[in-house]
Amino acid sequence: MSTDAKKGQEEFSGWRKLLWPIHSHEVKKFLPMGIMMFCILFIYTVLRDTKDAILVNAPGAGAESLAFAKGIGVTAAAILFMVLYTKAANIFKREGLFYVTALPFLLFFGLFPYLIYPFVDSFHMSLDTIQSLQQNYPNVKWIIPLVGNWTYTLFYILSELWGSAVLSLLFWQFANAITPVKEARRFYGMFGFLGNFGLLFSGPMIIYITNHIHGLGMERNMATGLMLKYLMAFVIVAGVILISTFYWMNRKVLTDKRYYDPEAMGETKKKKEKLSLVDSFKYILKSPYIGFIAMLVLAYGVSINLFEGVWKGQIKIAYPTEVEYNRVMGGLSTVTGGIAVVLMLVGSNLLRRFSWRACALITPAVLLTGVLIFFSVIYYNNTLLPEGVKIVDAIKQGIINKDLIVFVVVLGLLVNAFGKAVKYSLFDPTKEMAYIPLDPELKVKGKAAVDVIGGRGGKSLGSYTQMGLLTVFTGSALYQLVPIIAPVVLGIVVLWILSVFGLSKRFTALTTQQAEEKKAADAQKASTAAKEPAKATAQVGN
C-alpha cells in the first residue's frame, strides 16, 4: 500500500468514521467480501429457520429431539467433516478447497424439495410405528423420531453444518488469509454490517412466503412441500452469487498486490511440511492459544443451545405446524437482522476504540443477562401449573392462558435476537482477529478444529446436557428442567469470561511481538536501501 494510503488510515471523521471507514481504493476488496458474507448469512438464516420447523414438527418429535439430533447426529457429522476437510486441505489449494466444501451442501439443498421430500412417506416410519416404539422404549423416546424421519434429520444435520463449515471456517479462513490486522479492525465489523442485511432480507421473505402459503388453505404436507421449494430456490440463487463472487475475487482482486500481498501476510516464508491428521490434532492440542479460542466457541455453543432448547419447546406449544413455526423463526431473523445492523456499526467503532478484551467481554455479559431473565419467566409460569400437569394440557383445560406462552415466545425471540446480533457484531470479529497473528498451519487446521469440532462440540455439549436430563427425568419437558439448566448456563459463562482474559494476554503479546519484528524488518530494508546509492557513488568515484 502506498504512503498516502497508509496516511489516510487516520483521516476518517464524523459520519464517515462511524458508517463507512473504508478507503476508496479498498472498496474493490472489501465489497465482494461483504457480498459473500451477505449470501452466506442469508442461506444460513433460511436453513436455520427451516430445519427447526421441519424436525420439531416431524411425526412423534418435539423440541426435545433437537438435543439428540445435535448431540449424536451433528457431532458425528462434524467429526466426519473434519476428517475429510483436513485431508482435502492437504490436496487442494485455498480456492479449490472452498469449492469442494461448499458445492455439495448447495447441491443437496437444491435437490431436497424435488427428489426427497415428495417421497418421505415411503422413506419414513409411520406415526403409529414411531409412537409404538416410543411407548416400548421410553429411554430413547426422542431418538426414535430422528431415525423414523431420517431425511428430515439429514436435512437438519447438513443445515447445522453449513454455519460451521462455510461461515465460520471457509469465509473467515479466507478473510484471515488476505486481511492484515490493521485492516481487520475496520473491515471485520463492516463485513458483518453488510452481511446482516441477509437476515433483514431473509426474515421478511420467510414471513411473506409462510403467510402466502398459509392463506392458500392447503393440506399440511403440501403446504410444507411448497414452502421448501420456494425457500430452497432462494438458497440456490444466493449460493450461485456466493461462488461467482469468490471466483471473481481470486482472479480480479487477489492478483493485485495493493489488495493482497502474500509476503506481507507471511505466506511466502518457508512453509512447514504438511501435517497428517493425527499430527495436526497433536499440534493443535499443544497450543494453549488455540485452546482458549476453543473455550470461547464451546461456551457460546453450550449456553445458546441450552437456552434455545427451552425456547423452541415453547414455540411448538404456541405454533404447532411447520408453516406457523417457520413464521416465528422468520420474525426472529428479521429482528436479529435489524438489531445486528445497528450493532455492527457500534461494534465496528468499539473494535477501533477499545481493547480486544473489552470488546470480547460484551457478548457473554449480554447473553447471560437475557437468558437469566427468560429462565426466570419460565420458572414463574411453571409455578402456575398444578403438579403433574403439562402446559399443553393446562392450556386445553383453561388453567393457564395461552397468551402467557406467546409472551414467553416473544421474550425468547428478543433475547435470541440480541444474543445473536452481539455475536455477529463483536464475538465473531474478535474471535477471528485472534487467528490473524498465528502461523499458516494453525490458521488453517487449528481454525478448522476449533470452528467445526469446537463449534459443533459446544452445541453438542449443550445437547448432551439436555439428553442427560431428559434421560434421568423421563417424561419431563425441557421447560420443567429450568431450575437445573439455569445454573449450568451461569457456570459456563463464567468459564467463558475467564478464557477471554487468558486469550487477551496472549493475543496482545503476539501482536506486539509481530509489530516489533515488522518494524525491525522495515528498518533493515530502509538501511539496505540507503546504502545502495552510497555504494554506487563510491563505485563511480573509483
What is the topology?
Elements: H1 3-7, H2 14-19, H3 27-56, H4 63-89, H5 94-116, H6 120-123, H7 127-136, H8 144-148, H9 150-178, H10 181-195, H11 197-216, H12 220-252, H13 277-285, H14 288-318, H15 322-353, H16 356-383, H17 391-396, H18 402-435, H19 440-472, H20 482-541
Helix pairs in contact: 3-9, 3-10, 3-11, 3-12, 3-15, 4-9, 4-14, 4-19, 5-9, 5-12, 9-18, 9-19, 10-15, 10-18, 11-12, 11-15, 13-19, 14-16, 14-18, 14-19, 14-20, 15-18, 16-18, 16-20
Could you provide a short overview of the structure?
Helix 14 packs across helix 19. This protein has 20 helices and no strands. The chain starts with a helix and ends with a helix.
Number of domains: 1
Radius of gyration: 25 Å
CATH homologous superfamily?
Answer: MFS general substrate transporter like domains
Principal-axis shape equals globular
CATH class call: Mainly Alpha
Q: Predict the CATH topology.
A: Growth Hormone, Chain: A
Please write the string of helix (H) and strand (E) elements.
Answer: HHHHHHHHHHHHHHHHHHHH
Please give the share of residues in helix. over 70%
Low-confidence regions: 1-9, 269-273
What count of helical segments does DSSP give? 20
How confident overall, as mean pLDDT? 83
Largest sheet: none
**Strand portion, in percent?**
under 5%
In whole angstroms, the N-to-C terminal distance is 38 Å
CATH 2nd-level architecture:
Up-down Bundle
Structure, explained:
The chain has helices at 3-7, 14-19, 27-56, 63-89, 94-116, 120-123, 127-136, 144-148, 150-178, 181-195, 197-216, 220-252, 277-285, 288-318, 322-353, 356-383, 391-396, 402-435, 440-472, 482-541. It is mainly alpha-helical and 542 residues long. The protein has a single domain, classed as MFS general substrate transporter like domains (Growth Hormone, Chain: A, Up-down Bundle), CATH 1.20.1250. Helix 10 (181-195) runs antiparallel to helix 15 (322-353).
